[in-house]
Amino acid sequence: MSQATTDDWFDTETHVALSRRAFGDINPIQNRHLAAREVSAGHPARVEQVAARTWMIQPGISNVALFETDAGLLLVDCGCAGDGPALRDAIRSCSDKPLHTVVFTHGHVDHAFGLWALLADGERPRVIAHRNLVTHFDRYRKTAGLNTVINFQEPGASGRAWPSEPEDFPRPDMLFEDGCELRLGDERFVVRHAKGETDDAAWVWAPERSVIAAGDLVVGYLPNAGNPRKVQRYAEEWADAAEEMAALAAEVIITGHGECVRGAEAIRDELLTMSEYLRFIVRHTLNGLNAGLLPDEIVDSLAVPEHLAGHPRLQPHYDRPEFICRNVIRRYAGWWDRYPANLLPAPMADRAREVARLAGGVEALAARALELADSDLRLAFHLAEWAFLADEQNPDAQDCYVRIGDRRRDAEQSIMVKLAFSEPARRVAAARARQRG
Questions:
Q1: Are 99 and 73 spatial neighbours (Cβ–Cβ below 8 Å)?
Q2: Domains and their CATH numbers in the chain
Q3: Sheet of 174-176: strands edge to edge?
Q4: How confident is the model over 47-62, as pLDDT tens digits?
Q5: What angle, 0 to 180 degrees and rounded to 10, lies between the N-to-C axes of helices 264-290 and 235-246?
Q6: How confident is the model over 359-388, as pLDDT tens digits?
Q7: Among candidates 199, 267, 288, which has minimal Cα distance to 236?
């Protein structure tokens, strides 16, 4: 029996290692309590000076940009709720100037919730965000339970596992539409709106320093433009933002996660390749929709050119190009897959039981799944899932579902795919717990 039937793959060393590759220095405990102020990353923040009076601070899984000016400090993002104290200490290790302005690149739980510790320390900055951040926070409140489940969260000392009460959310003082310009002393900073992973995304350009604070618009792997568990992403506008940033000839990009990008040529290469990659997927998808192809036909025929798929900083460590394709389909063509039986389908368990009956029983279906796994693992996974859904208490079906789910998980590179393909082990563990009473 797979170890994943008793231990959640989310908590394994493999998942933690892959997450650290993508997101930075993740603490597995904090990863279960992203909204808890009392749960920190468990280590001092990493601080890296990237230009004169300019730092990248990594208090946990996300990066923060700090700009010192004669008028005070400009902070871009502030990490998870539990990162607040470490972020405060890191800022004070760089400068003793007061916090003048905070800009949020978007309202995700790992980027916009650590400001409370600085406010508690007496700082009174103006807080600036895109106007859609307010509706983003409203959505967080409405879907706290959903986000708890899909992000594998557990309650903190407050009893909440996800921001849900007014006091959980930072309050912007100034909202912008397309962008704004900030003056701190004699220096100009440009804030630009961009849709990407969210509709409230923004990035900050410091022209006198040739530095961009990009938030999650640049992360060092394939953009998270297709996440199947989350709300709509915006591949086309993400490409627009990448091209706009590329035109500035910046020398440093402070990314939302991971390492900074340095050097004008490296930055231009990454941004323009990213834009081309995203536009290729969008064009392929729209061409298929306009030709009347089914969504599955569009996704199955997606073949990303090697010069895009092989870029070292655009690898599918988190998202996958197929998911981006499906997100474009959802945006333009709705949720129906255009198989008529799936518009008003019979319950999945009923379908699975009928498939098992036609196969000669659950055991026969599970055996065929295992037989098929060596030649067509993707198809075998369907059979294994039908066998389990047809009879969740059948030991053969349980073992088959876990074994094939684990094989699919282990063959994948994307973290979000690995998490999804660890579901069979969790479901079998839950079914066995119910059997034990």
A1: yes
A2: 32-217 (3.60.15.30), 277-333 (no CATH), 346-436 (1.25.40.880)
A3: 46-51, 54-58, 64-69, 72-76, 99-103, 126-130, 174-176
A4: 999 999 999 999 999 9
A5: 150
A6: 999 999 999 999 999 999 999 999 999 999
A7: 199
